[in-house]
Amino acid sequence: MRLSALLLSALLLVAEPAASLTDEEENTIRAIERVAPSVVFIATISITESHLLDPPRQGVGSGFVISEDGLILTNTHVVAAAEQIRLIFRDGTVAKARLVGLDQQTDIAVIRADAPREKLRPAPLGDSDAIRVGQMAIAIGNPFGLGQTASVGAITGKGRVLPISRTTLLSNVIQTDAAINLGNSGGPLVDSRGEVIGINTAIVVGANNVAFSIPINTAKDLVPQLVARGRIARPYLGVTGKVLPSQFLDLFRLPLTLGFLVEDVEKGSPAEAAGIKEGTLEVAVERERYILGGDIITEIEGIPIRSPEDYLKAISPLKVGQEITLTLFREGQNRTLRVTLAERPDRR
Hints:
Thrombin, subunit H; 6 helices; single chain; 22 strands; Pdz3 Domain; elongated; alpha+beta
């Protein structure tokens, strides 16, 4: 009898169901499952200018379907130089894609999949303006080509300013601690309702889970123009440089002031036509390169330029064809110029 009781007890232990999931876990799984079928792995092949010597370059990233006719959102840096774009859907289906349009300034690109309609399940898009710091964030993508992966974290910041290049800043960026790695770029950041609130785009190298996503509302505004004309019409002055930090001014015996230091003026640009002067003296300060001797833009349309955020605030509302007023600091004196902005050239 004692042995029978032990056997019965053992059978009951084996038959006991596993611990049930919490409501929060169930909700997280539902959110992932709502978007996951829309997420694709993107593999690209790029041909270099010296293609006779260098082999084709391969790239990876992620994207997600936004329309039943095959439109897919991803990052510009994933597909910009691609000669070939291949997609792998969650169920293993392989398809080709072509570039529809891209925007370097926001790192947003649209491609179109050549895939069966039943594979094209648009992801539900949320409202990135309504997000709050502390709410759940789920990054879905294909890190390191391992296959579709979901990582769960939180929104850790909003309204961040992210440098895209030496002269371009992306505003209103979402910060998250959801794990994002190589191959996640272009994939969706999802909220607890299973709605896309961002496009994962960048990480801070060396940091522990400090990553950034482009707000989905930014993409909503740009997609119609990207589909219609392949690019975004943006105003163009034709200068490159950087905003001088305040601690920089005491390092040199030169007439300097706070503002945007003009390091280079492009040939044939509105800036050249207006007589804006570029730098001539290259120096390095704490491993940062500066070219001094050029004009310093201290105001744009009356907005003082004291930080990268000021510069972004000043240029964001400008339009193609608009005549603007610049205040320049040159050789110790202030002067005012009127410049008519052209449309930024397409250099794809």
